[in-house]
Structure formats: structure tokens, C-alpha cells
TrEMBL record:
It comes from Anaeromicropila populeti. It comes from the Bacteria. InterPro entries: Ribbon_hlx_hlx (IPR010985). This is Arc-like DNA binding domain-containing protein. GO terms for biological process: regulation of DNA-templated transcription.
Amino acid sequence: MGTYKNKTYPLRLDNDLRQKVEIIANKDDRALSKQYERMIRYYIEMYEKEHGKIEIDQEE
């Protein structure tokens, strides 16, 4: 088996929400998992603009 640098995480979503994200991903020619990642990164960026940078432990 291969080794992945990113951890996987099971995610439960409302079906309508998942379908809408899938439509966005398809329009942007992006994998659904990459679309979720992009959306989360954008949310964190907006959060940090309002509340300041979130410091994380780089050992994980």
C-alpha cells in the first residue's frame, strides 16, 4: 500500500449540501475531495483575517 502525506477523515453531510458541492467541483473540473479542501482553506483564510492567525503544532 502507498503512503499518503494527508490524513483521511470520514465526513457526513446533508445530501443536498453534498450535491451542491459536487456540482461546483464538476463545474471547476476538480475532484470532490479537492473541492472540499479548497472550501475549507478559504473558510480558514476568512476566519484568520477576522480573528488572527491560528498557530498549529507542526509535529503532526
